[in-house]
Design a protein that fits this description.
The protein has twelve helices and nine strands. It is α+β, with helices and mostly antiparallel strands and 306 residues long. The longest helix is centred in the C-terminal third of the chain and has 19 residues.
Length: 306
């Protein structure tokens, strides 16, 4: 079965840094249970081959398990973990970074009648579905190239293109299609999300970001919340707190300076919101981040769909 071969390939080729010789392809392996960890889901297809992955985005809870996949079409701050994992039965998954330009290229070559209809509702930035046999087969064939490195340069782009087509014609095809259209509402939201991520330490007016996204304020609020499960200000706060935790992992004794660098003018507000997000005040959390880094090199913080 495709899942059995997928598990074997992931176990054989998993590395501590997640990377593979195939561009944009990552392998995830968890050999022990982990607490929910703040991370970022970028624009990605993630397939679980073994175990159950749970994550929270704003007030939404998601779960996907072996044989299911997630599509993230906007860079989103989430809290995620493999629910169960052990050395004998590790959590296993593979991620493929999605590029709007590559999706747009596939869309341009497709017959209009073969494309899914665009939904009128504001699309979510995340979606979970069961992988079709065709999608799993394509993912397995992509990973087989790890065992024939000389084939990667020629064949990997072809198989990636097939994977994109399987996504476009899947249950979540309408979302993927929106992701590849430069003038779709999801692309407009993605532009605003990127601006907030790039300028997270700066105060901003929602009206200005809505204008940047090319939307009215009401349409921007509706589409932004649908995609991210947060308001723009809540999204900014999540990014600020994640960045603060990354900086504290590197400089645990510089809490006041970190709070200022990420945009907080009130140390008490920073401490209060940090504790609410991570379950401990900055000073206490900073102390426990250093041992975590010594154990596995990650400090419990990730920048990908782990």
């Amino acid at each position: 079965m495709a899942l059995d071969e997928l598990r074997d390939l992931l176990i054989r080729h998993a590395r501590p840094d997640l990377r593979t010789p195939i561009e944009d392809v990552l392998i995830f392996k968890a050999e022990r249970p982990q607490p929910p960890t703040p991370t970022t889901y970028g624009k990605v297809l993630a397939v679980v081959a073994q175990g159950t992955k749970r994550f929270a985005l704003g007030d939404r809870l998601y779960e996907y398990r072996e044989g299911q996949y997630l599509v993230a079409s906007v860079d989103l701050p989430v809290t995620a973990h493999f629910a169960k994992a052990s050395s004998k039965q590790p959590g296993l998954g593979v991620g493929l970074t999605l590029h709007p330009a590559a999706i747009a290229e596939v869309l341009l070559q497709a017959a209009p009648d073969d494309l899914p209809d665009l939904c009128d509702d504001a699309p979510h930035g995340l979606a979970v579905s069961t992988a079709s046999a065709e999608l799993l087969d394509a993912v397995v064939r992509l990973l087989r190239l790890l065992e024939r490195p000389g084939d990667i340069t020629v064949l990997a782009p072809l198989i990636k293109r097939e994977i994109l087509w399987r996504l476009i014609t899947s249950d979540q095809g309408a979302i993927v299609r929106q992701f590849g259209l430069p003038d779709s509402s999801l692309s407009h939201v993605a532009r605003a999300v990127q601006w907030i991520r790039d300028h997270y330490a700066q105060p901003f007016g929602v009206e200005d970001v809505a204008k940047l996204a090319g939307m009215s304020v009401s349409a921007f609020h509706r589409n932004f919340h649908a995609a991210t499960a947060m308001s723009p200000i809540q999204f900014q706060k999540q990014i600020r707190l994640q960045q603060a935790r990354l900086q504290l992992a590197a400089a645990p004794g510089d809490i006041a300076a970190v709070s200022r660098r990420v945009g907080y003018t009130s140390p008490s507000q920073f401490s209060r919101e940090y504790r609410r997000q991570f379950g401990a005040p900055p000073s206490q959390d900073a102390k426990r981040l250093t041992p975590a880094r010594d154990q596995d090199g990650s400090a419990g913080i990730s920048a990908g769909p782990r």
